[in-house]
Amino acid sequence: MAELNASAKIWHNGELIPWDDAHIHVCSHVVHYASAVFEGIRCYKTQSGPAVFRLDEHVKRLCRSARIYRMPIEIGAEGLREACLETIQANQLESCYIRPIVFRGYHSLGVDPTTCPVEIYVAVFEFDKYLGEESLQQGVDVMVSSWNRVATNTLPGMAKAAANYMNAALIKMEAAQNGYVEGIALDSRGYVSEGSGENVFIVQDNQIITPPIAASVLPGITRDAVMVLARELGYTVEEADIPREYLYTADEVFFTGTAVEVTPVRSIDKIAVGTGQRGPITAQIQESFFSYVEGRAEDRHVWLTPVYAEDRTVGASPIVSAGA
Question: Are 116 and 209 contained in the same domain?
Answer without folding.
Answer: no
